[in-house]
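If you are new to this repository, start here. Below is one unmodified record pulled from the training split, so you can see the exact layout before writing a loader.
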Amino acid sequence: MNNHCVKSEFGYDFCPNAIFYLSLCIIAPSAIQTKPRFDPKTAAGFERLPQQMQVFVEAALREHSASFSNARLFTEAVIDLAQWGGVTVEEVTEKVNNRANAQDRDWVSFFIDAVEKLKKEDPDYRAREKTPEKKFPGRVVAHEKQNQVYGDCPVASEKTVCCNLKTIDAVTDCALGCNYCAIQTMFSNDNVQVDRNLAEKLRSLTFDPNRFYHVGTGQSSDSLLVGNKFGILDALTEFCHTHKNIFLEFKSKSSNTAWFEETHRKDATALPQNMFFSWSVNPQVFIDAEELHTAPLERRLAAAHKMIALGFKVGFHLHPIVHFAGWQNEYRVLCERLLSEFDAKNIVYVSLGSLTIPRSVRKKIRAGGFQTMVTKNLTAENPEGKLTYPAAIKEELFSTVYGFLKPWHSSVFFYLCMEEAKYWYSVFGDCYASNDDFESAMLEAMRGKIVVSR
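And here is the target side for that same chain:
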């Protein structure tokens, strides 16, 4: 094409290319590239909203101009309100209309700001009228995948103080339905999967006999959830008998200790002493709302007592510690109960950790459409970009709960799980120089509580 300017019949000089593009404006407006509009139907959880709320979102975005980003944030804000319960969309809309004219171009922004303020409020689990409906837990099935069952903790990071935990993935996926758990995004299958060839895979592993190891079984599922289905507890006890230098932790929110009790009744020597058992504990008001299929606190503590009676040591994970209305009193009562019911000599360690949610889990929570307030107050990011509490709240949570357990400070090993060094300094007044030093200190504490003949 000749790109020289030519004289048109209207007396103006045009370049042929300019005439071509001008013709697109006049003849084919649709050919001009326009900014994409956000479709609320693409937002995770939108289709689970009640029909009237879907209509509200679509009508608001038609009536009020909003950028692609703000339209997405507005849709997510409505989804969050629906999941939190309490304050309704109508109440927020009324507040926004009092602040801005209904036709105001900033109406959507005002709505988003109003919900952001609500997000910063503590959830109030005491105000719930009923326990949320429980999600379907799926089935327990066996698999024969050629995967590696032994490896590093899935949340290990150089950006936080890490204990170098190793894990055995005997079971993958979990049926306990904790609303905040990252396991729900780790696996694509809705069923709980047990490794049918676990014993064979464990027999193939080799370890340095001159050192100790801390190995967990509760990072890809709950350690006690499925009992001895497909022989996994047989395989794990054989593994412990073979490797006396491994401290194998069964971490749980279940109370399913029946297999261990029955095995011990038949033969007390059948269970190796280098196993120990730990429970995640939280106030019952939080368990009822956010840990849907788990054992109540009462049964978790009863299970811990049973394992101590069989001669085993136990641990407790106050993780996540959650900032909700009345949290100080709830955790004080919980800690007082631990102190009164358990002897420090039987406690391997106590871990403290905060609520930390990867963005993939946040999206999964919205997509689930279930009632939850677990995402409230998570207005900061940790070094890995995960949603968490602001630093001031985290320091208050850790320091307060650690203080409640003061009688155990000199006789029980305490640590922060997956937290930055700055919190160690503010809570404990010190921090390990390296993750290897942390691991060594933890193993030394285990050796002081768990007596194993090698």
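Two things worth knowing about this chain: The chain has three domains: 1-34, 43-119, 141-449. The first strand starts at residue 6 and ends at 7.
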